[in-house]
Amino acid sequence: MNEKFFQNKQAIIILIAAALVVLVSMGIRQTWGLFYGFFETDLGFSRTQFGLAIAIQMVFWGSLAPIFGFFADKFGPSKVVAFAFLIYIVGVYSLIQEPKTTFGFQTSLGVLIGIALGGTAMSVPVSAVGKFFSNKNRTIATGIVTASASVGFFLLPMFTKFSNQTFGWKGTLEYYIYFLIFGLLCSLFLIKKEYVDETNNPLTRDQSASKALQEAFQHKGYKLLTAGFFVCGFQITLVATHIPGYIKQTGLPDWTAAAILSLIGLFNIFGTLGMGYLSSKYSKKILLSWLYFLRAIAILLFLLFPTSIYVALGFGVVFGVLWLATIPPTNGIVAQIFGTKYLTTLFGIVFFSHQIGSFLGAYLGGYFYDHFGSYDYAWYLSILLSIFAGLVHLPIDEKPIVRVAPIKA
User: Fold this and answer.
1) Neighbours of 258 (CB within 10 A)
2) What's the confidence (pLDDT) of residue 62?
3) What pLDDT was estimated at residue 146?
């Protein structure tokens, strides 16, 4: 007998709400690289300062993800995500006011928006959805939510390129505030899933958050998964933040960068949905290993092939398929091993590692360019990290953890 995909109406509601929340939050997040020229000419901030602001954004995003995850597990995701959207609005509004100091710029773009992403982007909405679906269908559902980010990745760069030229960069940010208000309203429909123990195991039913964390950090596979997700963060933030600067360095037309980001968004829809489906059929760790090896090949070919618009657009297509396809199997492994009771908290910690990688991807891209006049060293490092990630997933034990009481002497 086939298992129903939607077990109840609540599952439908939260899937749609989470998809729209992620579309708005991650779609806007994807566009900051298209503003670096305005921040450089109008506000006087260098690429290193811009890269550092994005790096700070990544760290606050990652640092707050487990905390927002804990409160979402405890009080429900709607309150947490709505509060984070309010901070997002404040951060964008403060950028419109043209911060005059590096501290003000990095507080707006880095700290405030980073905090907001911790509650609105990926980890909380994805994990909230995962709780409403069975182990068989969970990666498909989380793949749908992740694919919605891809829709944002596709639409927002095109809108931003048009709006920056038509209304100016501040006018574009004003539109962003309206989008964020829409995201806030959608977040109110993120229903809390009350945990129901189906294991008949009191060690699972009565497990505390601190015990869950202790258990996770004693699990070799969890630590390896966390290390691998660091690489994902490094790569996607390097591309999202610095591909416009790299395209300019190669002499290609400026529109090529926006096209690459849009193609990444479009083809990531297929990548995340496909990976969500494959993860329900095959080993998640093997799929992740293949994905990282393919990223290394894609970046290497992008550097080796002669510079052309076609190569650049081809890179956008290929890397788009591989972009956020890491999320369904990574979230799925956490749920499969430890269960869903503290899924948002545990995945939030894995995501923190992702954001440490994002910090370095954003910062080192700008640092290498300002000191060596090229992004090449950042690309080479990204290739080496991709090979590391491909290898580090292989030893992960994906089997559900068995909780038994210690034998007393």
Assistant:
1) 23
2) 82
3) 81
